Amino acid sequence: MDNFQHPVSGRLTTAIVICCYSDKRWDILNKAIEAAARQVPAADEIVVIVDHNPALALLLRAKRFETPVRIVENIHPPGLSGARNTGISVSRGEVILFLDDDAVSDQDLLATLVRQLEDPSVLGAVSAIRPLWETDRPSWFPDEFLWTLGCTYRGLHPGPVRNLIGASMCIRRDVFDHTGGFDSGLGRTAKALPLGCEETELCIRATKALPYGRFVFEPSSGSDHAIPADRATWKYFLHRCWAEGLSKASLSLMAGPGEALASEKTYMTRTLPQGVMRGFADVLLGQPSGLLRAVALGAGLAATAAGFALGRTRAALTRPFTSVPTRALEPVE
Question: How far apart are CA 305 and CA 329, in angstroms?
Answer without folding.
Answer: 35
